[in-house]
Design goal:
- It is a single chain.
- This protein has about 450 residues and is α/β, with parallel strands linked by helices.
- The chain folds into two domains: about 150 residues, Rossmann fold; about 200 residues, Dihydrodipicolinate Reductase, domain 2 (2-Layer Sandwich), CATH 3.30.360.10.
- The protein contains 13 helices and 15 strands.
- Strands 14-13-12-11-7-10-9-8-15 form a nine-stranded mixed sheet. The protein has a six-stranded parallel sheet with strand order 3-2-1-4-5-6, sandwiched between helices.
- Strand 4, helix 6 and strand 5 form a beta-alpha-beta unit.
- Helix 6 packs parallel to helix 7, helix 7 packs antiparallel against helix 12 and helix 8 packs across helix 10.
- The chain is globular.
- The two termini are about 35 Å apart.
Length: about 450
């Protein structure tokens, strides 16, 4: 039974890879979405969240071949809105409206789709509101703040039948698609392990101190679904990632999402049955960083395969030779995969095949964009038009996201636990207490 299930998953994954590689159109699948726009019709979009990531969407939105018009730029910080407007003004001959409250944009029936690049705690509630309002959603990682939201975002997509592309853009890499197809076809034999890693040199962060919110910041709206609290110095501009669990999901949600998705895709697995974690804060011990900055996690699957995670946020030793990527091990060789391409090795460690991208996206740089984000966004547009199938549909993205939540929960409770491989539910009662979170009144998604 387990062998048949594994073969089914691998065949399905290989089929998806074939679609992306050949450019063939899965129109029957794409047209299942409601309110599909005509093949040549203009798509009207809004951008929510104008920090480090929005620049990655500029090229696909501006390119006239994609027939997209930007109606709104939305951010809770005035300076972010103004800066983004100035950047777009250099490249387009019209002015999108500026707005700080995404809920007002959702009331505009002219808006077809919303790109969401907000802090993590906004992702699922915002996406659910958008789908309910009839909008398609390009949802940046992490697609959820916790496991309850992971279930909600998939349930809302099924109910409202909207196109929801998760922003794990490496799924749109031609090279990644090719090597995944090769792995599923047996180029390295029977796979048994994947090691995904991320290394960075993040520095010290200030210890939180109560402060007046910066001029132009709507602190109440920034908090959105999160219970209200006083502002602390320098929280809004990225350090929210490390200042507790109100807004962020630590490095697992921030970056492990990408590499764990590739590892899971390569092995052809879904939910694990066990997670074990070693984590801690090991650098700059007296600064304001409240999360772990180092984590090793191990996910075990029912067919004997394992995925390992090695994350070092503030120790720059590149023990794998690169800053991020995934190593896949098989009975007849191994494969290294990252955003720039892949390389296949035999059992003696000799390189036997490789392919490198000419694109600019990869590495550890904050924000920006490149060929992968551009291709991912265009796929989103063409799926809305009914011409293609999504390369990263939310129901698949959510399974990969679940792995990051399991690791975070195990880190927070300080012990490993078992998981139902079919439902994704956790058997441990203490762990299940972190399945969801407390919400500000009126903000919890209601299906």
């Amino acid at each position: 039974m387990k062998s048949n299930r594994r073969n089914f998953i691998k065949k399905a994954s290989a089929g998806a890879a074939g679609i992306a590689l050949t450019g063939s159109i899965n129109a029957m699948s794409a047209k299942s979405y409601s309110n599909i726009i005509g093949a040549n019709d203009r798509i009207h979009v809004a951008l929510q969240g104008l920090g480090r990531r929005y620049g990655g969407y500029m090229d696909p939105i501006i390119d006239k071949k994609n027939n997209v018009r930007l109606l709104y730029l939305c951010d809770v910080m005035q300076s972010q809105r103004e800066k983004a407007a100035a950047n777009f003004a250099k490249r387009i001959n019209y002015k999108p409206a500026l707005e700080n409250d995404i809920r007002k944009i959702m009331d505009d029936q002219k808006v077809d789709a919303i790109f969401m690049a907000t802090p993590d705690h906004w992702h699922t509630p915002g996406a659910c509101m958008a789908m309910k309002a009839g909008k398609h959603v390009y949802l940046e990682k992490p697609c959820s703040h916790n496991m309850q939201e992971n279930e909600w975002v998939v349930a809302f997509q099924k109910k409202y039948n909207k196109v929801v592309q998760m922003g794990n853009q490496q799924r749109s890499s031609l090279e990644s698609n090719q090597v995944i197809k090769d792995i599923h076809n047996g180029i390295i034999g029977r796979t048994y392990k994947a090691t995904a890693f991320y290394i960075n040199t993040r520095g010290e962060v200030s210890v939180q101190e109560k402060a007046t919110p910066p001029e132009g910041l709507d602190w109440d709206l920034f908090q959105g679904p999160s219970p209200r609290k006083d502002y602390t110095h320098n929280t809004w501009d990225y350090n929210w990632h490390w200042y507790g669990w109100d807004f962020g999901t630590a490095e697992m949600g921030n970056n492990a999402t990408h590499e764990l998705d590739i590892a899971r895709w390569a092995l052809g697995v879904e939910f694990p049955e066990h997670v074990n974690v070693r984590s801690g804060k090991n650098q700059f011990l007296n600064d304001g960083w409240e999360m772990y900055d180092s984590m090793e996690a191990r996910f075990s699957f029912s067919d004997g395969q394992v995925i390992e995670w090695d994350g070092q946020s503030r120790n720059g030793y590149a023990k794998y030779g690169k800053g991020r990527g995934t190593v896949v091990y098989g009975s007849e060789g191994s494969a290294f995969i990252d955003r720039s391409g892949y390389e296949i090795f035999d059992l003696k460690g000799k390189s036997v095949k490789n392919s490198k991208s000419n694109g600019a996206e990869g590495g550890l740089a904050l924000g920006g964009g490149g060929n992968l984000t551009t291709r991912h966004a265009i796929n989103f547009f063409e799926t809305i038009r009914g011409n293609e199938a999504l390369t990263s549909p939310i129901e698949q993205g959510a399974v990969s996201q679940a792995m990051t939540h399991y690791a975070n929960i195990a880190s927070r409770i300080g012990k490993s636990f078992e998981i139902d491989e079919n439902s994704g539910r956790i058997f441990d009662r203490e762990a299940m207490k972190l399945w969801s979170r407390e919400y500000e009144a009126g903000w919890e998604p209601k299906l």
